[in-house]
Amino acid sequence: MTSELPVDPIAIDVGDLLQRTVASLYSHLVTRQTGRAVRMAIEARIHDAGDMSLSLIDLSEVTIMDFSCADEVVAKLLQGYQRPGRAEAFFVFRGVREPHRHQIEVVLERQGLAAVAETEPGRFELLGAATAEEVSSWQALEERGLLTEDEMAQGIAESRREEALDRLLRRRLAFRSPVTGRWHALSRLVSHLL
Predict the structure, then answer these.
(1) How distant is the alpha carbon of residue 194 from its chain centre?
(2) Which burial class, exposed, middle or buried, applies to 86 when counting CB atoms under 10 A from its CB (0-12, 13-18, 19+)?
(3) pTM for the full predicted model
(4) Where are the domains of the chain?
(5) What is the phi/psi pair of residue 116, to 5°?
């Protein structure tokens, strides 16, 4: 736990959860029931984290993911923590590769959601539904790792970018420290878990 982030990020290995939750030797997410069981196991881990959490959801060991599981494990997980009254949860999805990237993007776009995803080792992207300003602001934050109040005041981020950053915060695609006021790229906050 740092003064910037009032919680320790947690790593959740979906391949391991899948094997323990559905007692399968295979890392295939191919039924809605399987996806729901994995999502519920993830939610239990997040619940244990308290009022705020940052989770690295590792999909690296998932070999196949269908649309229903992308909906259950990614979209419904994001939706569930954007509702009022729920704990404040932030997510980074690791290991989003070609066998399941398309399915994740489609379900996110259909539901107006977006997620931070590691699509190659050390390369992060914003997947799903986002405006051009949100994508541009997210990329600027991702490149820098963080932005300070002074940098914002000095015009590094135009007013439109600041508005887009605020939308990213509301959508939990970036983090702003309640202590320092600095904007953080989620990828940097989980970097020690990679």
Answers:
(1) 14
(2) middle
(3) 0.91
(4) 10-193
(5) -85, 125
> Which tens digits make up the pLDDT trace of 74-91?
999 999 998 877 888 999
In the three-class reduction of DSSP (H, G, I as helix; E, B as strand; rest coil), residue 69 is classed as helix
Say if residues 165 and 192 touch (Cβ distance below 8 Å).
no
Give SS3 for 182.
coil
Residues 6 or more apart whose CB falls under 8 angstroms from that of 66 comprise 29, 30, 31, 103
Q: pLDDT digits over 43-66, tens only? A: 999 998 888 899 999 999 988 899
Q: Which residues contact 165 (CB under 8 A, 6 or more apart)?
A: 137, 141, 147, 157, 174, 183
Token pair, residue 129, equals 């539904």
